[in-house]
Specification:
With 491 residues, this protein is α+β, with helices and mostly antiparallel strands. Helix content is 27%, strand content 35%.
Length: 491
Amino acid sequence: MVVPGHRQAAPGPGQGGGHLFHLAVGAPGAGVPDRRSGEPRQGGGAGGGGVGGVDRRQGPPGGGAVSRGNATVWKRVGVGAGVAVLAGLVLWGSLASSNGRGKTVEVEKAGRRTVVAKVKASGTVNPRTKVEIQAKVMGEIIDLPVREGDRVKAGQVVAEIEKALYLAARDQARAALDQATVNLERARIEAADAAVTRKRVEKLFADGIASQEQLDRARLAHESALIAVRAQEETIRQARSALQRAIDDLDRTTIRSPIDGVVTALNVEKGETAIIGTMNFAGSVLMTIGDLSEMLVEIDVAESEVVSLAVGQAAAVRVDAIPDTTLAGRVVEIGSSGIKQVDVVKFRVKVALQDPDQRVRPGMTARVDVTTATAADVVAVPQQAVQTRWLDGRGKEVEFREGDASRREVKVVYAMAGGKAVRHEVTTGIHDELWVEVKEGLAEGTEVIVGPYRVLRQLKDGDPVKVEKAKTRPTAASGEGEGKAGADRDS
């Protein structure tokens, strides 16, 4: 029999009955296997005596085999539970082990060294004095006696433009001046004659011989003659100006170098037409002449760095085309107005080469290191050791909050003492690519935590820490290990 409320499965083919989950009660001859021993449990007597045992599996009537599907289900449940327990134990052990040892960090001792602050930028080499030669009159280039790279002297002819039109214009202006001169002489003679006539009529009028009308006509004629003289004098001035302009235009057909130098660029050929510039149109640049005896590098420096630059500061210049040579330079000019470049404001700075190499040519790319400050024999730590934190009024580290005046920003360095991170508020000075000068707040020889950055950026005062290894760094501050500081911060 079965417990009331349970549904019995229909017998399958070839079986005395199906298998179901139920309580087997006194089934005569039913062999229900025990889950631990595999031996059949004994049921009650015939007719349903005592309860033979509680089991979730029942074989076919008459002592059939146990269902394989149910055994597989129990096996899967057991394996899953075991895996979950094992994962939990591993996680618990990892956390407990991590909490016991602390965060793994790298340390280094704060030591004394020389820190050299520099501003670095790339730029282009140019002559300090450079002149772009443009035509001042339009015309065909009939002579071009120089080539790119030629040395020229001030006043030397470097190009000739067709003169025919300008010769004709000069001659025409000269003829106009001559005609104006003749006209002026005629006007003066007429004015003198009108003056004589006026005086005679005035005398006759005084004697009662001439009428008032005759006197008025004589005076008017004289005034008109004087006006004609003044008009011709103005015409003379205009004619002289026109002649001078024509002479100047004729002279401009011969183009001369304004400086001693080298032709660094030649943009035209003989036979081309030179175009002059206007208010809305830039004329053609025939050539560029530069004084190569004084070369400089023009660099653009960000506004955050230009404030540390000053005229006269020393610089090291490395030209990309001559990688094995470092040239001495000096800052000679700092721009007064910024140049906006992709949301960044930069200032044009000019660095003059002290002893130009003959291999250096205009247009070459150069890298410039300007030394802005030097701190010798000072306590210094790696750049990534210095962190920014926000502290409340009690000195507890808190998150940054905009507009909260009760929280102050400080520079801190974490030292290691007794297996814990100890916060030191520090006052920093100048820095180079690797090192930061510490003016106050840290003693020489203190072991400071320098990484890894993912741990250092979240480190707090009192956190348990464990040393992984001591880092080894170069002792010189200038140029060694370039870029290493940034790599360490990203680790």
